[in-house]
Amino acid sequence: MSEILHASAKQSEGATLARVEPQLTDLLGMVRQARFLPNWATRMSARQSGQYLSRLRGRGMDYDESRPYQPGDDIRHFDWRVTARSSRPHTKTFREERERPVFCCVDYRRSMFFATQGVFKAVQAARLAALLSWRAELNGDRLGGLVFGEQEHHEVQPRRGQAATARWLKQLVAMAPACRLADQSPQAATADTLTEAVARLTRLAKPGSLVFVISDFRGLDDNGQKQLARLGLHADVALIAVHDAFEAALPELSQRLTVVGEERWVSLPSVSRTERGAYSARFESRMTRLKQFCRERRMLFGSITSTDEPLQSLQRLLSL
User: Fold this and answer.
1) In Å, how far are 53, 63, 168, 218, 230 from 109, measured between CA atoms?
2) β-bridge pairing 61-68 and 44-47
3) pLDDT, tens digit, for every residue of 258-275?
4) Handedness of CA 179, 293, 225, 230 (dihedral sign)
5) What is the mean pLDDT of residues 68-83?
6) Which pLDDT tens digit goes with each residue over 209-257?
7) b/e map of 237-271 (b: 16 or more CB within 10 Å)?
8) CA distance 159 to 167
9) Which domains occur in the chain, in start order?
10) 3 state SS for the chain
11) What confidence score (pLDDT) does residue 50 get?
12) Structure pTM?
């Protein structure tokens, strides 16, 4: 009986850990689900809120040659140098790249290690990144990555193949414990960690790259938005905001609620309907500003909760 109880307790402990930190077997196994994601090697479109339509351009285009202009050619591809040299109008032709770099940027700041339902936001982010990474591998694209917390970050240069994808996923798993338990004192915290991560991405991602930034986007300021805008000038960018239901709306509390963490507890007083409304409005305002930012810069935007099924959520975001 004691052995059965011990095995049951160990199984329960493993299930709990899988909710707070990503597990390698889970991320590696998502290769099967990734086959059901849309293939961005072809042109894809994704509908945003309202009637705005955003488009991922697919693989980049490499210059092939210049040839005499033909009726119907895009005048934006006019080759003025060859035209001046030959005294005949010429236009540039392009061929599709055989592959494109795909980057996954995953936020492991302390705010991502939180949830009241489902899995921690960091676990959801890792699962989303795993699906996107395996889809890139299936496409034959080169995969690069960036994972960051308050005190450390790790960059992965774009590589192609299953081994490269597996190494990136192992890095996501390896960094999680330290980032979850990182010192959160004012001296250790970095206010502009997200901005710095996007700035690194801007340097890493070459023109034509496809970049997925998975975060709760807490603390995204004007500098961070400027860095994202710079990144969007030469790359296709998708922002995936992960949140917990508690962050979007407070529950109706008739008495004080105690929230317990690993090292401390917080007592929440009962709140009025007006206070709950103001709380929800602040969250909605933050999401609306982020959507508007993406809309103006033709970036994809998706909002995913800690209880959503990752595959279905990405299918909606990347749907044709």
Assistant:
1) 31, 41, 18, 10, 23
2) unpaired
3) 665 555 666 666 777 888
4) positive
5) 81
6) 999 999 999 999 999 999 999 999 999 999 999 999 999 998 776 556 6
7) bbbbbbbbeebeebeeeeeeeeeeeeeeeeeeeeb
8) 10
9) 11-55+98-317 (3.40.50.410), 62-96 (no CATH)
10) CHHHHHHHHHHHHHHHHHHHCCCHHHHHHCHHHHCCCCCCCCCEEEECCCCCEEEECCCCEEEEEEEECCCCCCHHHECHHHHHHHCCCEEEEEEECCCCEEEEEEECCHHHCCCCCCCCHHHHHHHHHHHHHHHHHHHCCEEEEEEECCCCEEEEEEECCHHHHHHHHHHHHHHHHHHHCCCCCCCCCCCCHHHHHHHHHHHHCCCCCEEEEEECCCCCCHHHHHHHHHHHHHCEEEEEEEECHHHHCCCCCCCCEEEECCCCEEEECCCCHHHHHHHHHHHHHHHHHHHHHHHHCCCEEEEEECCCCHHHHHHHHCCC
11) 34
12) 0.78
Helices 162-180/121-139 angle, 10° precision = 170
